[in-house]
Structure formats: structure tokens, C-alpha cells
Amino acid sequence: MSEPYDVVIIGGGPGGYVAAIRAAQLGLKTAIVEKRGALGGTCLNVGCIPSKALLQSSHHFETANEEFAAHGIKASVTLDLKTMLGRKDKVVSDLTQGVEFLMKKNKVDYIVGEGQITEPGTVVVKGKKKQTLKTANIIIATGSEVTPLPGVSIDEKQIVSSTGALDLKKVPKNLIVIGAGVIGLELGSVWRRLGSKVTVVEFLDHILPGMDKEVSKQMGRTLKKQGVQFKLSTKVTGAKAGKGSVTLTAEPVSNAQGGGKKETLKADVVLVAIGRRPYTENLGLKKAGVEMDDRGFIKVDEDFQTNVEGIFAIGDVIGGAMLAHKAEDEGVVCAEIMAGQSGHINYDTIPGIVYTWPEAASVGKTEEQLKEAGVEYKSGKFPFTANSRARCNGDTDGFVKILADSATDAVLGCHIVGPEAGDLIQEVVVAMELSASAEDIARICHGHPGLSEAVKEAALAADGRAIHM
Ligand code: FAD
Ligand code: NAD
């Protein structure tokens, strides 16, 4: 048995490994337990990173095929999928090894195996050998897993989750995506760009639930123009994998009220992307007495403390936005609180980004949320067609919309569809974090010609005085 630790972290994803680094920086004797065989969690291994590597590669492929000619570049382009997937794998392994290096650098003990809490203060790790770790504190950062769909069993070959969809060895002729959320649209975009006919089946009557409705509408129009087909208000009731194809049964959601025709759809590959659920298998939570809510998320207070003293939880496993940067920030704050410091997270300023092209990005309240809360607000909107840099780049789809309080002018939200939306939103995140007004953003000098001038113009538009519109 080792010397007792100050903290043992179970799960080496963005929540867990960032908490480990911060705890070690603060002088805590720290260990991290990860069963996957690589650090970085869902995000680095089968999530954010491989998906963004493929989005970038497939974007290059489509640009070369469809857009070079307009720039006066003649190119003949063919796809080498094996190399594309190999590059993605190398990006992943370089980054996961980088995290392992960071553990060494910060003197965090990295223990490979499945961690189980046998009692508060004790974690048993089942790896190559069984180890018992004694510790003052435990942080649970075990993340999430794919939500299964009844009647649809995932084989990761023909019926795949995001993990299988990141590693298809052949471009499917037809791909059906179940769920028009972030994963469905990002990975649907990858395979459409590489040549698949993509149909997205969505339960709701709109795509990207939770985002501002105007963003959802604009993204729907743009993706349709790119060739993605949508079947909205449609429920998948089953899927059967046969030789070479999958048969899917679906029906209109209105069937609950009667009427509507059932239909059968066929595809080479079906991607199930209907959300993720907390992962706590074999953790020993019941025995340790750790409370969970009715959806299986671990309950914590504002200091990430569970109901059991000395056991904390962060990241996807506690719910809220299932985002890597949210998990990371929770990891930092949790470690700081554990070390006797104070800290908090402003959940109103966590950005959400969809890495399609154009990208969609959002921070703060949507118009729908402001209306529901009865907040008087003004809206300033600026289209990328009127932004000179977007014109130079040939990326004019989309807009920036800034929502500000009618009385105080405080920025309440920002919603962007457009080129580099994920980076553009960060300016508004900073503004909101510093309690800025739309006028503040409007008065800041923005470099010309820049996409960020669209943010400034939207801020001006909130006061009815955009210059270039
Ligand atoms: P995880 O990253 O899930 O890590 C948990 C780790 O704990 C896992 O490695 C698991 O093996 C380990 N573990 C579980 N139980 C045990 C145990 N008992 N013992 C030892 N180890 C254990 N988010 C973004 O912000 N941006 C994106 O672009 C983005 N893209 C995504 C794309 C896809 C396809 C997917 C699936 C997700 C994406 N996400 C993205 C979400 C992001 O991956 C998660 O929000 C993030 O990984 C959560 O971090 P975490 O540390 O809470 O958990
Ligand atoms: P999601 O919650 O974003 O979307 C799931 C979609 O599936 C919803 O639109 C939902 O209405 C629909 N759906 C649910 N049941 C259905 C059914 N039976 N038939 C048809 N449609 C159905 O979930 P996701 O896309 O699986 O992503 C999971 C998580 O991963 C998200 O929380 C997201 O935050 C995270 N993620 C983030 C990024 C990013 O930040 N760029 C990228 C990928 C994933």
C-alpha cells in the first residue's frame, strides 16, 4: 500500500486530468486512476479531438473539390481515407501522450485500472495488479457514455455510436443519423463532405435543441443547402442490421396522438446520436452512500462536494452542459476549494460551439429564454454578407446576434452562425464575464478586415446604429 494521498481522482478526462494538475500545483499529493489505457477521456480519445481532426480534413477535401475553382485554382482531388483516419489517430495519440507527460511533470501518480470506492477514503484499483489507495479526498470524474436507443443495438460497424462513426473504413453511400444534436450534425457533416448521402432523423420539430431558434433555423437552411436531408418530428422505433445495409423503422411523433404513416428507411450505416448519460458503473457509489438524481447524475453542492464528506464529483457525471471546457473549469475550482482556496464558476458564460461549417456558437441567454423570463431586451444582428473579410474568404453564410438588456445595455447573450464562430464568441464571453454593455463592445477597436468586425457591428446594431448595414 502506498502513502496516503491528499486526493485520488477517478477518471482521466478533461475534468479529471485538469483537476489533477491543479491539485498538484497547489501542493497536494495526487493520484489519477484511468481504466482506458490512455489519458484524456472521451474528449481526447473518442470525442472533441478525433471529431475536430476529421472535420478539418473533410473541410479541406470539400474546399479543394468545390471552392478552389472559384479562386482560380485548378486541382484534381481524390480521397485517401486511410491516411485521413491515420492522421486523426496520430493527433489523438500525440495529445494523450502529452497529457501523460503533464502528469509526470506535475508529479501526479498515474495508475492504470478501474477505480472503485470501497469506503470513503479508500479507492481500490483493478489493473494489472490490485492496489488499495488511501486518500483524504476523492474526486469522481468518470464522465458519460452514449445513451442507447431501445430497439437499436449498436455494433459499431453498421449501427454505430460517435465512436464507430469516427473510424468508418469506407465512406457509406447512405448514412442515417438519429438525432440532430451536436454529434449528429458534426459527424453527419464529416461523412457528407466525403461523399455520403446523409439523412438526419430528429424527434423534435427543430435541430440543435437548446440553441437560439434563429441559429437552429439558419443552420437547418445552410446544412440543407449543403445536401443534408432532415426528417423532423420523426421517431425511430427500431433498426435491424442485415447484409450490407440497415433497415430503420420510423414514425411521425404525432402518432402518439394517432394518425401518421410509419415508414422504413435503408442505409449502409446508421449513427445513433441521441445524447449521453452519466457513467458510474462499478464505482461503488451505492455502498459508499453517494447520492445520485433520478437520471443517474451525481448530486453535488456548489463546492462539488457530494453528500459524503471527502467525496467530490465534477464534469459530465454531475450533469449540466456536457462540455470539455466546463469539466476542466470544474476540475480547477474543485481542486482549489479542496486546497482551502475559494472559487466559483459562472455557468452563464460557458460557450457552446458546433464545429460544422459554418460553425454555430452561443453564450448566455437565448431569445426564447429571455422571453420566457419576461426580460426586456434589445437585439442587434449583423449578417456576414456585409462583412468584408467574410466576402474575401467566400464565407458569407450566417450572422452575429447580440442580445442586451433594454434598460442597462448589459450583454445577456450572443448567438453566431458563421465562419470561425467558435473563436468569435470568445470576445463576447470575456465581455459578459466583465459585465460589459453592448456599447462597450461597440466602442472597442476591431482590426480590419476581420470577421470580428461583425461582432462590433452587431453590438452597434443593438442600438440601431450599425455602420455597414
Ligand atoms: P470523460 O472525458 O468522459 O472522462 C471520463 C474518464 O473516466 C474516461 O476516460 C473513463 O474511461 C474513465 N473512467 C470511468 N469510470 C472509471 C473507473 N471506475 N475507473 C477508472 N477510470 C474510469 N465537448 C466540447 O467541449 N467540445 C467538443 O468539441 C466536443 N466534442 C465531442 C465529440 C464527441 C463525439 C463526443 C462523444 C463528445 C464531445 N464533447 C465535446 C464532450 C466532451 O467529450 C465531454 O464533455 C468531456 O469529455 C467530459 O469530460 P469528463 O472529464 O467529465 O469525462
Ligand atoms: P444532443 O443532446 O446534443 O442531441 C441529441 C438529439 O437527439 C436531440 O436533438 C434529441 O431531440 C434527439 N433525439 C433524442 N431521442 C431521439 C429519438 N428517439 N429519435 C430521434 N431523435 C432523438 O446529444 P449528442 O449530439 O448525442 O451529443 C451528446 C453530448 O456531447 C452533448 O451534450 C454535447 O454537449 C456533447 N458534444 C459537444 C460537442 C461540441 O461541443 N462541439 C460535440 C459533440 C458532442
What can you tell me about this protein's structure?
Helix 7 links the parallel strand 10 and strand 11. The mean pLDDT is about 95. This protein folds into 3 domains: about 210 residues, FAD/NAD(P)-binding domain (3-Layer(bba) Sandwich); about 120 residues, FAD/NAD(P)-binding domain; about 110 residues, Enolase-like, domain 1, CATH 3.30.390.30. Helix content is about 30%, strand content about 25%. Strands 1, 2, 3, 4, 5, 6 and 17 form a 7-stranded mixed beta sheet that branches. A 5-stranded parallel beta sheet has the order 8-15-9-10-11. Flavin-adenine dinucleotide (FAD) binds next to helix 1, strand 2, helix 2, helix 3 and strand 4.
Cα Rg: 24 Å
The percent range for strand residues is 15-25%
CATH uppermost class of the largest domain? Alpha Beta
Q: Percent of residues in helical segments? A: 25-40%
> Which spans of ≥5 residues are poorly predicted at pLDDT below 50?
none
**CATH homologous superfamily identity of the largest domain:** FAD/NAD(P)-binding domain
Largest sheet: 7 strands, mixed
Structural class: alpha/beta
CATH-derived architecture of the largest domain? 3-Layer(bba) Sandwich
Distinct small molecules bound, one entry per kind: flavin-adenine dinucleotide, nicotinamide-adenine-dinucleotide
